[in-house]
Amino acid sequence: MRLFLTAALMGTTSLCLSSPAFAQPMSAEEAEALRGELAALKAQVAALEERLDRAADRPAPVASVGMAPASTPSAVAPAAQARPATEIGWKGAPELKSDSGWSFKPRGRILIDAGHVSAPEGISDPALGFSNEIRRARLGVEGTMPGGFGYKLEADFAEGDAELTDAHLTYKHGPFKITVGQHNNFQGLEELSSSNDTSFIERAAFTDAFGFERRIGVSGEYGRGDILVQAGVFTDNASDLGDSGNSSVSLDGRLVYAPKLGETQLHFGTSAHWRNLGDTVTSVRYRQRPLVHSADIRFISTPSIGAKGERGLGAEAAFIRGRFHGAAEAFWQTVERPGQADPTFFGGAIEAGLFLTDDRRGYRDGMFKGVKVKNPVGSGGLGAWQVNLRYDRLDLDDAGIDGGKQNGYMASLIWTPIDYLRFMINYARLDYRGAVIPAGTDRNYGVDVVGMRGQIVF
To answer: Sign of dihedral through CA atoms 351, 356, 360, 361?
Structure first.
């Protein structure tokens, strides 16, 4: 700054001396006036230099609230360390979150199965023996929005064409939650628990036999402490909606009591369901495959039943304590037949599981969740190892309908080397009574099944 002021003074003097007015000889009075002006300029420069010296010795001012921070290194450093507006996390896939309440996460799963079904002599079917398939190949997105809103959209591509699974919006306020769109209608513990986290390659036989599926509807939930109440009104699955519109309407509800006693997580639940199938008599049928979905054969099945509606009642109980868990479910499905007796079919299962490693089964919001591996492969550990046993019962005989009975005795071994990756092997002995496929003339026989799965989820 001093150099600038000195240069300015010299430039001014030079300009004055080189101007046309000074090109002529000056009188003594003119020379004396010029000296006075130069002296005044020098005095101004000296005063400016003194002010600059005082400013350099003064400490930097502290910025108050509402003032722009000084552009010094100490003021810039905190700004560089400020929290970014958007965070990127990892839950099997990138998850983006903003301070404003928006979030976005891609989600999906790939489940690849292989199985082998051994039936008695006298039964010949191309579905017997070895089979394999991509059981599920889902891709979607989920996230939150400001104000307590959320969204989820997911489709399954395992059959070649896209089939909508979840498609809904949610609103949460304190213990209350409202869901609108296609979602599960509170059928029971295992059906609501993700297929990523089940103890066996397939859920209990009754969940598939009784046609549990997601449907379009609106529901409400209330969860506080140990109590969870769920209820909703539903129509059909999105894939069943035709040009004529919805053909059914149902009322579905579930009540869960899940106290924790010391280290033990308990679960008790019950559900009730009523469904009107439409203005005309509708054909329904209940049947089930032999454990593995890749074997397209049913040893147990009702004939087609003309029905006006369905009623369902479920009961469920479970516990988790350290490495141990146990679960039991039962479900009664009644078919409303016009002018005839209403048959009631039964399904149920009971299972127990043990982790061989220091891990435990997850649980939250009235559902089983996946294991968080304590010692994953790649970090010096062996992953999580789990064994499970199950008894699975399905009875499709009642009121003159002979669909057969199944008693299943099953075991599974699960290895989860790291979070989001899992491998399973299952064995099942299925004893049938009154099977719809005879072995020669015998309808009472057993079937052996081995199933395997590899899966990755995100």
So the answer is: negative
Q: 323 near 335, Cβ under 8 Å?
A: no
Helix (H) or strand (E) holding 42: helix 28-57
Cβ-Cβ contacts under 8 Å for 215 (sequence gap 6 or more): 182, 183, 185, 234, 235, 236, 237, 250
- pLDDT 10s digits, 57-104: 555 444 444 444 444 444 445 545 555 688 999 988 999 999 999 999
In sign, the C-alpha dihedral spanning 371, 223, 138, 105 is negative
* Nearest C-alpha neighbor of 209 from the set 106, 63, 345, 46: 345
Query: Residue 51: is it exposed, middle or buried by C-beta count within 10 angstroms (0-12/13-18/19+)?
Result: exposed
Residue with token string 């009754």: 206
The one-letter code for the residue type at 170 is: T
Question: What is the spatial distance between Cα 8 and Cα 25, in angstroms, rounded to a whole number?
Answer: 25
Position 389, amino acid: L
User: What would the DSSP string read from start to end of 124-162?
Assistant: --TTSEEEEEEEEEEEEEEEEETTTEEEEEEEE-TTSS-
Query: CATH homologous superfamily for 88-457?
Result: Porin (2.40.160.10)
Residues in the chain: 458
Predicted confidence (pLDDT) per residue in 210-236, tens digit? 999 999 999 999 999 999 999 999 999
| HEC string for 4-18 | HHHHHHHHHHHHHHH
DSSP per residue over 225-277, as a string?
A: TTEEEEEEEE---GGG-BTTB---EEEEEEEEE--EETTEEEEEEEEEEEEE-
Residue 393's pLDDT band, with cuts at 50, 70 and 90, is very high
